[in-house]
Amino acid sequence: MTTSNGKVVYITGGTKGIGRGIAEALVATGYQVAISGRNLEEVERVAREIGTTEQVLPLASNVTQYEEEVQAVAAIIAHFGRLDVVIANAGVGIFASIEELSIEDWNTMIDTNLTGVFHTLKASVAQLKQNKGYYISVASLAGINFFATGSGYNASKFGVVGFTQAAMLDLRAHDVKVTTILPGSVTSNFNNHTPNEKDAWKIQPEDIGELVVDLLQMNPRALPSKIEIRPLKTS
Known about the structure:
By secondary structure, the protein is an alpha/beta fold.
């Protein structure tokens, strides 16, 4: 059993894929972690699987709703007494040509992937400033590389990169670190995918977890503001 290092982390979209990989790595390193998702029953199940009730706080929050993120942050403060690190990871991908991409699909991606990232930081920024904390957004290499059938997803992730880098400039004067991580192909449940042995060449969720642990342990004077990470192989 790990012992707490006194730091508290909030991870949105923390029940599967990258979010769960980060949560597991941080719990193993001694952080106290709050994870959120839309389905509280699922979040509670995952929380039980990755740590004790002293280590992991399950929360229901829809990042597209600002007030729900405000309530999530308040619950974290009430439970752990502080908040030091926020990781905006919740995201969704719907891929179709511009002729076939619906208005609903566009809004779903922009509201979740981009506006949700804003909501999460807006709701937590006072705590991050108070504790000289760290904000990390999980973008994608699709945030700098466009591709066919990716117009909505590209738009949302390009937006996340721009938003997070501008927020970095706003908050560095307050000793708050801000980083955006741009993963390439990752083994996950993203876009209704079921991980299998054919995904072995891809980045694994635990690799992103290891990266986040390394970021949090870096010297306070160093700020890696944007990190691209891709598989060594292409298939």
